[in-house]
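Box 3.1 A note on notation
Throughout this textbook, protein chains are presented in two layers. The first layer is the amino acid sequence; the second is a token string describing backbone geometry. Keep the layers aligned when reading.
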Amino acid sequence: MKNNKLLNYIALALSIVSVIWFFSSDSRFLPFIAAVVALVLGLEEGKKSHSGIATSAVVIAVVGIVLTSARFIGCISCAYLINKGLNSL
């Protein structure tokens, strides 16, 4: 039981870190990886213990995944539009 609590808190910490790390100036893919690990841990521990901590870790991890995915899609589309604009010159 103690191990479940520890993994719940690790999942919660990783999910919070992923959202906070998203707002740093140089985030790359590490917040996404932290959010995915937090999501997996939160889902696995949520099945076992039905804890509110695991549920909040899953919700915050999904927010982290959505934020980092939106940034990635934005970067790809911006690079595409810049390349398309430069080719028209």
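The two ends are 65 Å apart (CA to CA). DSSP finds three helices and no strands in the chain.
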